[in-house]
Amino acid sequence: MTGLRGRHVLVTGAASGIGEAVCRRLATEGAAVALLDRNAALLATLRDELAAAGSRVAAFPADVGDETAVRTAVDGAVAALGSLHGIVTSAGIFHPGDMQPLAGVSLSTFEHTLRVNLIGTFLVAKYALPHLVLHGGAIVMIASTAALRGHGFGSGYTASKGGVVALTGLLAEQYSAQGVRTNCICPGATDTPMTGGVYRQPERVERMRRLIPLGRVADPVEIGAVACFLLSDDASYLNGQVIAVDGGATVR
Q1: Is 157 a residue of the active site?
Q2: Are 91 and 120 in contact (CB under 8 A)?
């Protein structure tokens, strides 16, 4: 991909799943990566692995829902790398208590989900943007196809990811003149640690064959590749776009 070598990118949710895939692809493309995740042990393992392979990398254990922690992590990333040219907001949760009709979802579950998925995205963008505008850069937000059509469950998850989609358009309007592009990926079914292996169950594999035109769920590396494309100069005229990376599921 054009232009990623030497770029400095901050990735949240970096220790596993889509975030980890983004980090690995960025490192392969020659970018310097700041890793942010609340799981300090997994974060350190990934940092050490990427560094041993010759990548420039820094790690910052932090909860994206904690404003002070996010501000400190962004400042630390800038201090470690020297600047920021892009961010990928991949940190997200699906709370078990959200797996029911809305009337049964507790306020604490709803609020906690929004705290991580939406407020966390807002905070990372808020504190990264003053650095991104200095050089021009790119923001890639990770939402979900739940934001586009609802999955029939996950009140907090759906609302939070819908908010991420809305923020994408807002930032594209507000910061384009300062050279910052903002785009959003809405992954469909993806086999990550957050889904707990459910997509590898035989009955779910068969169901996905029926529901998804490509006949399978995504691997995180496939989402990570799109995120890196959106950060790259190859996507220099893409701005304010919401891209469903879902094997065609949303066309049905």
Answers
A1: yes
A2: yes
Residue 199: pLDDT over 80: no
Please tell me which residue in 127, 157, 175, 237 is annotated as part of the active site.
Answer: 157
Domain boundaries, the chain: 8-246
pLDDT class for 198, splitting at 50, 70, 90? Answer: confident
Q: Which fold has domain 8-246?
A: Rossmann fold (3.40.50)
> Please, what is the average pLDDT of the chain?
95
Q: What is the model's pLDDT at position 204?
A: 78
Please give the C-alpha separations between residue 208 and each of 155, 212, 249, in angstroms, as whole numbers: 22, 6, 9
